[in-house]
Amino acid sequence: MAEPAEGPTVTEWGRLAKDHDLVIVGGFCELADGLVRNSQVMVDSTGTRAVYRKAHLWHDEQDVFAPGDAAAPVVDTALGRIGMMVCYDLEFPEWVRAVGLAGADLLAVSTNWPVSPVPAGERPVLVAYAQVAAAANRMFVAVADRCAAERGVGWVCGTSVIGPDGYPLAGPVLRDGPPCWWPTAIWPRPGTRPPARATTSTATGGRICTRSRARAELFSRDRGLDRRGRLSSWPTI
Predict the structure, then answer these.
(1) pLDDT, tens digit, for every residue of 67-126?
(2) Whole-angstrom Cα distance, residue 12 to residue 9?
(3) How far apart (Å, rounded) are the C-alpha atoms in residues 55 and 19?
């Protein structure tokens, strides 16, 4: 059921974020100005930070949803700069690049990836899109994908956290799993201490909850990588 951004779903996420010091990014079916949108919201302990409306509608979504007409936001949070994106948006390099150029440390992707045939020994190409987005833009990508079959449709189960080098730090799940999956949190901001947890979710799909009990400095001197100078310090191909 579609509901406004101030409706019961987002209100409950806001309560959880305040009670548990969370940053929550989740997808929901939004009703706004008489139109139905495939939307994503970010809430933290201070309230709603941003609402993003999916710009690139896939297949029959166009029969139900109105596309968004605003760029994907990048929001300053206690955890760093977090970008927002929904599902099919991730397959458009220029859309992802805009988030990278805006200085996102992490891109949170709420998605429902339908399963399709995959050659033996290969990873689903939809997971590969997320890996390329991370590597090309030198940022973390957190994907929350739907798990388990529903109404006769199978899902990739691609929930994962991908590092700026393009390789998974946790996941992809690629199988039916528990409703909440806990990878180790890795945060690239030396000298900062993030809140207890951060969460990204789809409204009806999987959920990633990253615990921030410990921070690993992925971009250390001995690796020769600099988060802010990622373009100049990475070789051109």
Answers:
(1) 999 999 999 999 999 999 999 999 999 999 999 999 999 999 999 999 999 999 899 999
(2) 5
(3) 32
Q: Is 94 exposed, middle or buried (0-12, 13-18, 19+ CB in 10 A)?
A: exposed
Task: Report strand pairing: 160-162 vs 168-170.
Answer: antiparallel
**Would you mind telling me the total number of residues written for the chain in this entry?**
237
Q: What is the rounded distance in angstroms from the CA atom of residue 143 to the CA atom of residue 108? A: 6
- Among 111, 159, 107, CA closest to 133: 107
> What would the two tokens of residue 159 be?
């929930």
**Is pTM beyond 0.85 here?**
no
Q: Angle at Cα 77 formed by Cα 83 and Cα 26, nearest 5°?
A: 50
Residue type, 160: S
| Amino acid residing at 95 | W
Cα–Cα distance for residue pair 99/188, rounded to 1 Å? 17
Kindly give, in sequence order, each residue whose CB lies less than 8 Å from that of residue 12, ignoring residues fewer than 6 positions away: none
Give the pairing type, strands 80-86 and 35-44: unpaired
Scan for tokens 């951004």, then name that residue.
5
